[in-house]
Each structure stands twice: as structure tokens, then as C-alpha cells.
């Protein structure tokens, strides 16, 4: 009986927690650089809660750098979204996407200083695609289902 009550209490807590959060759909994919990208879109399709992606660039100092960026939220209008802003490094980032044929496609760019020093790291014209619960992406199973998506554990640059 005690086990049954504990199970019912746990189920009630899980139900209350689930109803207090906005349901989201997970889209996973990769960029034209072969790097991972993750989107969480509200179930009604009107909002983007988070987008995470990795970028890679040959910086002005001649070194190649790669790092993740996390952005969001954003509104979705006419099956499209666009986010741009200043990074904590002083650099600038922009990403846009459009929902087509069961998935998302878009472009991203990143410019300016990074966590790798004051040398500018610029990359533009990177295309990406993401499919619902699929696509070639390097994410541990369940990692985005239990909390914030983390493409890789690293600093935002």
C-alpha cells in the first residue's frame, strides 16, 4: 500500500510539472560545416524556445576555433524565425530558419571577438537543416529531453 501511494504521489507530481511547462518539439540536425544544431519549437509552432549550434572558423590569428552558441526564445511567424544579437564576447551572431517539408532549414553567421582572444572569428553563409527527433547530430540520447539542450559542454563564444 505504501509503495502504491508513493507511486501515485510521484505520478501526480510528474503530471503537475508537465502541465506547468510549455510542450515543445525537438528538432535535431547539422550545419553545412558538419556540426550539430538543435531546435526546440513550441508544440503550437508559434515560438522557438531555444536553438543551439556549433560554429567553426579560421580566425584572424590563423587558428581554427569551434564553439557552441545558445540563443532564444523567438517568435515564429509564417513558419519562419530570425534571431540576432551580441554575444558575451562582444561578437555578433545571427540565425534564421524556415519550416519546409517536415523540417527546418536556414542560415547562420557569427563575427567578431570570441573566447579565444581578441582576434576576430568570422563565419557566414553557413546553412543548416534539422528534422523532428532525428538527423545526424552528436547529442547523447535523452540529453535534450530532460532539460536544456547542450550540444557540447563548452563555453558560449
Structure description:
- By secondary structure, the chain is mainly β.
- It contains 1 helix and 9 strands, in the order αβββββββββ.
- Strands 1, 2, 3, 4, 5, 6, 7, 8 and 9 form a 9-stranded antiparallel β-sheet that branches.
- β3 and β4 form a beta hairpin.
- The radius of gyration is 18 Å and the shape is elongated.
- The N and C termini lie far apart (53 Å).
- 25% of the residues are buried.
- The model is unreliable at 1-20 and 136-157 (pLDDT under 50).
Describe the structure concisely for a colleague.
The chain has 157 residues and is mainly beta.
Write the layout of secondary structure elements.
Blueprint: H1 2-20, E1 24-31, E2 36-42, E3 47-58, E4 64-71, E5 74-75, E6 80-86, E7 92-100, E8 103-111, E9 123-132
Antiparallel strand pairs: 1-2, 1-9, 2-3, 3-4, 3-5, 6-7, 7-8, 8-9
Question: Which key features would you list for this structure?
Answer:
elongated; 12% helix; mainly beta; disordered C terminus; 1 helix; 157 residues; 9-stranded antiparallel sheet
Provide the succession of SSEs.
HEEEEEEEEE
Describe the biggest sheet? 9 strands, antiparallel
Radius of gyration: 18 Å
Number of helices: 1
Q: Which structural class should the secondary elements be placed in?
A: mainly beta
Amino acid at each position: 500500500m505504501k509503495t502504491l501511494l508513493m507511486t501515485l504521489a510521484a505520478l501526480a507530481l510528474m503530471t503537475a510539472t508537465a502541465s506547468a511547462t510549455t510542450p515543445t518539439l525537438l528538432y535535431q540536425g547539422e550545419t553545412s560545416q558538419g556540426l550539430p544544431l538543435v531546435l526546440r519549437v513550441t508544440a503550437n509552432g508559434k515560438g522557438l524556445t531555444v536553438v543551439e549550434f556549433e560554429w567553426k572558423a579560421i580566425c584572424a590569428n590563423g587558428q581554427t576555433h569551434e564553439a557552441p552558441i545558445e540563443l532564444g526564445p523567438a517568435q515564429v511567424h509564417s513558419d519562419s524565425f530570425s534571431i540576432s544579437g551580441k554575444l558575451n564576447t562582444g561578437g555578433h551572431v545571427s540565425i534564421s530558419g524556415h519550416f519546409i517539408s517536415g523540417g527546418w532549414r536556414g542560415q547562420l553567421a557569427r563575427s567578431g571577438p570570441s573566447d579565444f582572444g581578441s582576434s576576430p572569428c568570422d563565419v557566414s553563409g553557413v546553412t543548416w537543416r534539422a528534422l523532428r527527433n532525428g538527423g545526424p547530430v552528436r547529442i547523447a540520447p535523452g540529453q535534450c529531453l530532460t532539460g536544456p539542450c547542450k550540444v557540447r559542454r563548452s563555453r558560449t563564444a
